């Protein structure tokens, strides 16, 4: 069992090998299902020049947004950027490069990258600025554009439960981009709410097989709510 045990005891060990100018693929949607402790460790390491691929960049002062405070992110590949004032400021000042990508296309870029597929055709974005300069082709009377897949040196993922072999289960909507991100990193690090022994997870429930995972760490999560909407 020891040879397959992927659990590490510190965030420093979890993110060992992360260097300047690398690409990091991060799971999560808004603040839901984000690997909070792994993001905090990137900030603590002070790693700079990063290309970060994620649905969005958190909010001011939380999630991936904390990496903007010391300008650790050079380029952001994301679908939505509307909840972060510092992000907007750095973008408008030319301090942050942003590649806006349709949400489904971004998910497929991660999935395809993890599956070893270098590119794929999608109708999304054809005839818009998203499709400018990209190869296009007609299939069954409809135009499609060619999108390249994405991989990164690191993928950081948040799981509900993981076993010591790296098999993962996500909880409800916290699944979001995490399964795709987990496949697309040369080194994939999972931060889990609970770590169980091998055999405790039903094989039919596992959403990310441990073959994709290199390291697992037990996390502590604030689970901050991005927007609270209540009624009288």
From TrEMBL:
Coiled coil: none annotated. The keyword Transcription regulation does not apply. SUPFAM superfamilies: NagB/RpiA/CoA transferase-like. It comes from the Bacteria. It holds the Pfam family CoA_trans. Transmembrane segments: none annotated. One of its GO terms (molecular function) is CoA-transferase activity. Keywords: Transferase. Belongs to the 3-oxoacid CoA-transferase subunit A family. NCBIfam families: pcaI_scoA_fam (TIGR02429). This is Succinyl-CoA--3-ketoacid-CoA transferase.
């Amino acid at each position: 069992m020891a040879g397959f045990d992927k659990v590490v005891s510190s965030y420093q060990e979890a993110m060992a090998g992360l260097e300047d100018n690398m690409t990091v693929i991060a799971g999560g949607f808004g603040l839901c299902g984000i690997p909070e402790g792994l993001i905090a460790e990137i900030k603590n390491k002070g790693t700079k020049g990063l290309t970060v691929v994620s649905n969005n960049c958190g909010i001011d002062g939380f999630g991936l947004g904390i990496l903007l405070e010391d300008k650790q992110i050079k380029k952001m590949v994301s679908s939505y950027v509307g909840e972060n004032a510092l992000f907007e400021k750095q973008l408008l000042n030319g301090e942050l490069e942003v590649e806006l990508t349709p949400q489904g296309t971004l998910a497929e870029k991660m999935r395809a990258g993890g599956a070893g597929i270098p590119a794929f055709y999608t109708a999304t974005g054809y005839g818009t600025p998203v499709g400018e300069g990209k190869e296009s082709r007609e299939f069954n009377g409809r135009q499609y554009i060619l999108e390249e897949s994405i991989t990164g040196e690191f993928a950081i993922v948040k799981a509900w439960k993981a076993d010591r072999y790296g098999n993962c289960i996500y909880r409800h909507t916290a699944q979001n981009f995490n399964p795709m991100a987990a496949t697309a990193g040369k080194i994939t690090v999972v931060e889990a709410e609970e770590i169980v022994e091998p055999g405790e997870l039903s094989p039919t429930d596992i959403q990310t097989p441990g073959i994709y995972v290199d390291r697992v760490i037990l996390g502590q999560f604030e689970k901050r709510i991005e927007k609270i909407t209540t009624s009288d």
